Amino acid sequence: MSQQTIKFVVQRQDSPETKPYTEEFEIPYRPNMNVISALMEVQRNPLNAKGGKTTPVCWESNCLEEVCGACSMVINGKPRQACTALVDKLEQPIRLEPMNTFPVVRDLVIDRQRMFDGLKKVKAWIPIDGTYDLGPGPRMAEAKRQWAYELSKCMTCGVCVEACPNVNEKTDFIGPYAISQVRLFNAHPTGELNKDERTATLMEDGGIEGCGNSQNCVKVCPKGIPLTTSIAAMNMETTKLMFKKWFTS
Amino acid sequence: MTGNSYYYRKLHSLLGVIPVGMFLLEHMYTNFLATISPERYQQQVAWLTGLPLVLLLEIFLIWLPLLYHGVYGLYVAFQARNNPTSYSFFRNQMFIWQRITGVITFLFVVWHFAETRLQVALGNVEKDQLGALIHDILSNPIALAVYVIAVIAASFHFCNGMWAFLVSWGITVGPKAQRISTYVWMGAFVIMSSMFVAALIAFSGDEFQGNIGLLLNSLLG
């Protein structure tokens, strides 16, 4: 009896400078496999579908429970996490590509530095350090906490950035995730103290106006974060701040 | 120069509605009067062209805002990396159509302006001959097809643009509000395109036939 196998077509790239190429793999099927366990199989036995020896496919992963975002890649044309991409639920051959809106380091490994730069740009934190104990902060209303918690699920995975038509080499649009993070930190009662500073970061080149309302981000977000609601809410905030600045400066 | 892309884009968005969108509605209304009678249409044209400081109104409420909206719009449109095959979601399709219809409308407006308003400015056509001028243009089936496509494109661009305007200024924030807004503006799109097409049909009718056919033939080559 011939053993059941799964087929993969992987877009590979040896270094950031070299051209991508595809390589096919056929690996033995085991029940309940995900894309990562399949890639591990290739790592153990680096043979391509023709039986030729090859280098193992490189990828990144950490948590294996869809909370870190490290294993994000384009699977059958959709950006998502490899850990929750179950082989049984995928059409074969399974096509794996890196999220090439980002610079490709090697194979499926990408450099997501721009996302962390984006979070720094929008000051996605709450400054509480001081020279003395500031005491406890104000309480947050439960209703507000509930929607803010949804925004806090962002794991900076880059899927929204990958799907956005307005994030590309021709623009400097920061991407949906960062706009939602401004809304999150502005919602926090202590974070609210620096609200205008954060909002103002979205009113610079590459800020919120880069959004063209294609709304792909909200459709692909693995955490179901209401990104378009955040963007629209921040559109209102930036408009208000614009008038405030005009009439008070 | 002070400012940055935030302000340039906001200005583009605002001008698209006030005054460019308002002008489109006015233009649609005036043209639609052609379905009543050539006289009613001509009366409205006479009223519009008789407005005080009409040239200044045209320059500051139509031409300059339209030029800015169009040129900056082209810049925005060609910056997108359209990806409808990977992401065939409704809003992503609308995103692309907004850009396609914007480019069609821009090209059409350039041609339409050169054929009508410019000819009036050059003294080739009198204001009271505009209905006959359009009648003659539309007697060419290719021109008629271009006009039909263009008015539908312009109506779509305005209506879907209004949907986006409401999001971009933070008025329709949540998904439900945005969904209802989609229904409202797609309804408006159907009404607007119908009114524009009805006007085109009226202009094609015999009652708009004038005697400037020879002139037109020389203009169109």
Radius of gyration of chain A: 21 Å
Based on Cα principal axes, name the global outline of chain B. Answer: globular
Order of helices and strands of chain A: EEHEEEEEHHHHHHH
- Number of structural units classed as domains of chain A: 2
Assembly type of the chains comes to heterodimer
Q: Quote the average pLDDT of chain B.
A: 93
Low-pLDDT runs of chain A? none
**Series of H and E elements of chain B:** HHHHHHHHHH
- CATH-defined topology of chain B: 3 helical TM bundles of succinate and fumarate reductases
- Number of extended strands of chain A: 7
The level-1 CATH class of chain B: Mainly Alpha
What separation lies between the terminal Cα atoms of chain A? Answer: 80 Å
Give a short summary of the structure.
With 249 residues, chain A is of the alpha+beta class.
Describe the structure.
The complex is a heterodimer of chains A (249) and B (221). Chain A is of the alpha+beta class. Chain A folds into two domains: 5-110, Ubiquitin-like (UB roll) (Roll), CATH 3.10.20.30; 113-248, Fumarate Reductase Iron-sulfur Protein, Chain B, domain 2 (Orthogonal Bundle), CATH 1.10.1060. Chain A contains eight helices and seven strands, in the order E-E-H-E-E-E-E-E-H-H-H-H-H-H-H. In chain A, helix 3 (142-151) packs antiparallel against helix 5 (176-187) and helix 5 runs antiparallel to helix 6 (195-201). The longest helix of chain A has 22 residues, at 227-248. Chain B has 221 residues and is mainly α. Chain B has one domain: Fumarate reductase/succinate dehydrogenase, transmembrane subunit (3 helical TM bundles of succinate and fumarate reductases, Up-down Bundle). In chain B, helix 1 (5-17) crosses helix 4, helix 1 (5-17) crosses helix 8 (141-168) and helix 5 (90-115) packs across helix 8. The longest helix of chain B is centred in the last third of the chain and has 30 residues, at 175-204. Chain B is globular, with a radius of gyration of 19 Å. At the A-B interface, helix 7 and helix 8 of A face helix 1, helix 5 and helix 8 of B.
